[in-house]
Amino acid sequence: MRALTRFEIRACALALLAHGLITPLVPQQSAVLQPVAASGVGIAVDAGAATGSLIAPPSVPAVVTGVEDASPIARTVALTFDDGPDPRWTPQVLDLLTRHHAVATFCIVGENAMRHPELVRAIVDAGMQLCDHSHRHEIDPSRPGAGMAHDELAELAGTDVPWFRAPGGVWSAGVQQAAGTHGMRPLGWSVDSRDWTRPGVDAIVEQVQQQMSPGAVALLHDGGGPRDQTVAALAQLLPWLASRCYVTTFPDGG
After folding, report:
1. Other CB atoms closer than 10 Å to residue 161's CB: what's the count?
2. What's the mean pLDDT in 75-84?
């Protein structure tokens, strides 16, 4: 999903205003449109403060659950895909993202990457970002750094691996610190599609739509099992996001 032009941002802002999704401040304060809650869903613009990031000392990086520097007008969202790469589903996800000019972060399991190094390179070549999701989708609490796949992913991709996502979202200070020693930041999420439960395409779409807000990090999967429902849901979600003036980005806002 390409970045919106200034004209498109203005058009989106006017459309959001017309639907009551944003409201202008009073003139003496500012003419800039500010987001407000819609349909009972809170909109978190200050992602670090509003999405429940963990407070931790500098030696233990906090878990990132929202896009940094989220734009209140362009409505940024970070899409993330876990448990791949998978030779059947990852290319389909990449194709949809490319066709919709969207970007995403792929949280890769090391042993899958070793089986399909060509897919790791395809992800990078498509302009996507990498995230370490451990070597075997498990981390030993007593030796958290031992189960990370950072070095093998970086070698396969020939690029940086800036993020680590704990399997199952099970974080500890040790896991967070181990990620930091590898130069990675812990990546959480604020929108859970629950696509891994295979609830049906409509249910996945509804889950994401109901939880979506500017600055969100959305969790989906391109591996770990049949992902036909995820692919079909993504085909609906990408145009829906565009229609709501969302722009896809990476968790660091880049």
Report:
1. 23
2. 96
Single pTM value for the model: 0.80
**Measured in whole angstroms, how far is the alpha carbon of residue 134 from the centre of its chain?**
17
Cis-peptide into 85, omega within 30 deg = yes
Catalytic residue among 82, 83, 132, 195: 82
Cα-flanking dihedrals φ and ψ of residue 189, to 5°? -160, 160
DSSP 218: E
φ and ψ at 243, to 5 degrees?
Answer: -70, -25
Closest CA to 65 of 211, 194, 195, 225: 211
- Tell me which of 100, 135, 150, 221 is the catalytic residue: 221
Least confident of 40-44, 106-110, 184-188: 40-44
- Pairing of the two strands 22-24 and 104-108: unpaired
Specify the CATH superfamily of domain 43-248: Glycoside hydrolase/deacetylase (3.20.20.370)
Residue 100 annotated to the active site:
no
User: What value does the mean pLDDT of the chain take?
Assistant: 83
Residues forming beta bridges with residue 219, ordered by sequence position: 80, 192
Evaluate whether 220 touches 79 at the Cβ level (below 8 Å).
Answer: yes
pLDDT in tens, 183-228: 999 999 999 999 999 999 999 999 999 999 999 999 999 999 999 9
Q: From CA 28, how far away is CA 33, in angstroms rounded?
A: 13
Instruction: Assess contact for 27 and 126: CB atoms under 8 A.
Output: no
Those residues whose C-beta lies under 8 Å from the C-beta of residue 27, and which sit 6 or more positions away, are none
Asked about 101 being catalytic, the answer comes back as no
Q: How far is CA 81 from the centre of its chain?
A: 7
